[in-house]
Amino acid sequence: MSSNKPNPIMQALAAAFSTKIQKREDAFYEPRQQSYYCVSSDDDWVAAGSGESPPKDESQPPVHPTKIRLISWNIDILVPFAEERMSAALDHLYDVVSSTEPESAIIIFFQEMGVSDMEQIRDSAWVKQRFNLTDIDSRNWLSPHYGTTTLLDRRLYIDSVFRVPWYSKFDRDGLFVDIVLHNQAHPDGPQKTMRLCNTHLESLVADPPVRPIQMTAAKQYLHHDSVSSAILAGDLNAIQPFDRTLHEDNNLNDAYLLIGGEGAGPGEEDSDNGYTWGYQVPQAMRDRFGCSRMDKIFFTGSLSPINFQRIGMGVKAAEEHRQMMTEAGELDWVSDHYGVMCDFVLTAGGQLVEQKHEGE
Question: GO CC terms on record (predicted)?
């Protein structure tokens, strides 16, 4: 049977659900700059700009100037056995990363991270070898219980990291990263920027709707004059009719709808090929809510998607943990969500720039 022990995260969400959103002062919704973290020569996570440049990973080839792989995955924070599930999720992602063309830059968006998830990420050997992190703990989250984090290929030249709080009762925000690009078409022209946004939009149904307000807030950052290309991805909680046009309403492209179908053709709504939620939940929840395409990848500007697929399908906790989970009345899936992944190429002369390393 499931444990009757109170879940503080569930209690906090339940309390938020029963209240109305309180609009904060305008200053609350302004961007909040934050550090990102790299691994030092002593194998410790240190804030970038702390005076120590990360040592270069000689096992990795130079980054391809135009190839990017973007992965996004929500790892359910509301069910028990967080460490067992996150361990299996990281093992699965290691396989995905290892099978990626070595020259391609890899970026991983996580949503619904808890404190133990962050500990496992920062202690993971393959993460230390391949990535910088936007967060190593919960200090930049709006909620004390959960939040987002982004893993950035350590070869990328990171210009800045900032968060923008959304109008939200569940402490949701946008985690933005600006990546420096070389302007190959106009070498003497202004610097190009690729802007990334990792987000977890408002859950459930609200009246009036909240997710359109959040996407409108994101729009101004994705279409900024200094940004030549942008990607927004995450758990967009797309469960209502208006969610189907949020990309069009904000002048964005939906990668799945463009190339997520058979043979890289257009993807279709209301399709088993596109759903990311509903298959790895208790049957009662599936009977009540059905399946949906909650998780999406939007983009704009000088980017071209070339491959889209889902990840995490059928991934479960390690075999030695499953009986314990079953006896506790829990499913043994890593998450109730599938992840989404898209390969992009930069166009219009934009090229990735290698991060400088110690000794260079």
Answer: cytoplasm
